[in-house]
What we know:
The chain is α+β, with helices and mostly antiparallel strands.
Amino acid sequence: MYWSDRAVQRVAEENGIELAGRRSWTFGLSLIGLQGGFGPKQRMTRNRLEETRRVLRHIGSAATESLDTEPEAAYVRGVGKVEFAEFAAWHTQGAALMHVQVRNVHGQRIDLCLFGSMDNLRGFGPSDGFADGWTSSAAPAVEELLRTRGRQNTSQWDCQESRSVEALKIVLDQGFSSVSGEHAGRPETRGFTIGHAGHCELFAEIYTDVVLDPARWNLEGESAAPNASWSADRCGSER
């Protein structure tokens, strides 16, 4: 459903992963005159499934699966329902966002807030034609988080937790005509929606990983986390 070749190549280069295997030589032998020789190199066909296996095998336990460990996770893998939408911001075009919400074995809510490029989405048309709804003034701060891989923050949301909360609000509440709860659990009723897919296997690089302090935040709408002892907000890049 979503594959960023650019991100996969970068992860492979930074971790010394050979994605497509080594190119091989062919050897030929002619009986006439007993002449032998080497033929040209054979290029290996790109295979996303095989590349995925190579990356996962190499990254190994560095990719968090249980989601019950304390931050910070560098990579996350898992299975869940993914909601896709356009990342609506005045300063950028062609951006996509993806959201996965799960609970770990302790019943704690985990929100994966993933961002990428629209041209990496497959199987979906353009975003819906609903009237534009709420967009966030914090979008440039989130864009900076993604562009610098979490290493720079020049925004007014000057700590990792507050900027991650803004990313969570964008992923959950962007496009709604209100945040009063009328759209709760119904992302298809909000603007900028593209679609959703169930039981997706995912592997994502994480740029910021925080546990929200319930005493600090009074979140509304979809961002609220009732019946959860804490909410972990993992904000990441393209797959």
